[in-house]
Hints:
By secondary structure, the protein is mainly beta. It has helices at about 40-45, 130-135, and strands spanning about 30-35, 50-55, 60-65, 70-75, 80-85, 90-95, 105-110, 115-120, 125-130, 140-145, 160.
Amino acid sequence: MGLFGFGKKKAPELPPVDIADDQICALADGEMIDLGTVPDPVFAQKMMGDGVAFKYAGNEVTICAPANGKLTALFPTGHAFGVTRSDGVELLVHIGIDTVNAKGDGFKVLSHKQDDTVKAGEPIVTVDLKKLGAKYDMSVMLIVTNANGKEIKFAAPGKVTRGQVISL
């Protein structure tokens, strides 16, 4: 890393993925699960919108942008962010259940800031799954909060890789 970068944690080298502007992709390598199975009724009953959820293994995961668009919300705590596609579809990524109570401990917001343009697959937040998982359910929800008149369907649950298209 060189003398001047010693000890400084930088964003993982994860290049953006090449998907169409009307597609949605997996946030990281893991397991895509049915949203109805998460232990939070607000998400499970789709009160905020339809979507999917993910489970990740290991000590740490880097959550990436689910689509090309604008980073229209980025909570300073790192537990949630929103991306609005060019067609007006609004997506919310919520990392863990009740993790707002961690007050940012265990989350590292990377180089992007609110209102930045992002490409699908670009790293947004690194999550300490080991630390947070000791206290919180670490399901990660991807919710379509505003479909903007579009019909959005998701692939069947199963193993996914970062950048894999999951919208049908």
